[in-house]
């Protein structure tokens, strides 16, 4: 083998060895003028990557639940949402107040939502700022079809997708009981992902690993559950939360589920 050939083979091997590192450093295009680099764990601007769920598998939420557009979820999540709403309707002060402001969002629609408010004359100056409150396209749990944003109606004193939802009885009820229907809070206060606290944003993983559809959902969120656990969540022993709120209408406790 000639020296030149050895050099060529060696250079090719070095380049192949470098390929993963080079790939990690490549920026991901998000909007026409915005991109972001992904970290070693695949996150972009704090958010983990998610593929898009098959739209044929999605079911619509009950009539009247959705505000602002259709609310579609994976079948098992939609079934448990119906059970959750039925339970909520039996609680005075909560009954009839829970709505869905956003559920499944395609990656392309997420791009419109994310990019539409970035610019010199817009609410956010950069993708990094925008990502504090909305996930970039291809990095949103909403694309999976397992996640929804709850809203409250009527709610004259608290806008949608705002942490003030927990001051409403229905928001407090979700914190205490959504786990019983397989939903967990993706972005708890002070989460290590650096995403804002989102007490309105819940993802479905099933009440147990054996629940219909739960294995598929838990596989989708496995990396998130391992690195950034939901609180209250279904993978963790529920923490005891001591409320300092004045006259809490509902106790902030998280009952243990059978088999957990
Ligand atoms: Zn959300």
From TrEMBL:
All residue ranges annotated as the D-alanyl-D-alanine carboxypeptidase-like core domain in the record: 72-206
InterPro entries cross-referenced by the UniProt entry: DD-CPase-like (IPR052179), VanY-like_core_dom (IPR003709), VanY/YodJ_core_dom (IPR058193), Zn_M74/Hedgehog-like (IPR009045)
Residue ranges the record marks as coiled coil: none
Source domain of life: Bacteria
Name used for this protein in its record: M15 family metallopeptidase
UniProt organism field: Sphingomonas qilianensis
């Amino acid at each position: 083998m000639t020296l030149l050939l050895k050099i060529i083979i060696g250079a090719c091997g070095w380049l192949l060895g470098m390929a993963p590192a080079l790939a990690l450093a490549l920026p991901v295009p998000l909007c026409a003028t915005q991109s972001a680099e992904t970290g070693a764990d695949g996150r972009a601007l704090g958010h983990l990557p998610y593929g898009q769920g098959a739209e044929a598998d999605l079911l619509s939420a009950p009539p009247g639940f959705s505000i602002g557009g259709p609310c579609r979820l994976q079948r098992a999540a939609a079934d448990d949402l119906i059970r959750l709403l039925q339970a909520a309707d039996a609680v005075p002060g909560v009954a009839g107040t829970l709505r869905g402001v956003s559920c499944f969002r395609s990656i392309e629609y997420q791009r419109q939502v994310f990019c539409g408010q970035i610019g010199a004359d817009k609410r956010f100056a950069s993708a990094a700022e925008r990502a504090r409150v909305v996930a970039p396209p291809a990095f949103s749990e909403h694309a999976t079809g397992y996640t929804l944003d709850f809203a409250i109606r009527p709610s004259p004193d608290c806008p949608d997708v705002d942490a003030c939802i927990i001051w409403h009885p229905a928001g407090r009820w979700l914190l205490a009981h959504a786990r019983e229907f397989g939903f967990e809070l993706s972005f708890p206060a002070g989460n290590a992902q650096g995403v804002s606290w989102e007490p309105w944003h819940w993802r479905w993983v099933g009440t147990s690993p054996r629940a219909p559809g739960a294995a598929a959902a838990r596989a989708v969120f496995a990396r998130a559950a391992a690195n950034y656990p939901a609180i209250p969540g279904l993978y963790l022993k529920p923490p005891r939360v001591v409320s300092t709120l004045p006259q809490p209408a509902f106790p902030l406790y998280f009952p243990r589920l059978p088999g957990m």
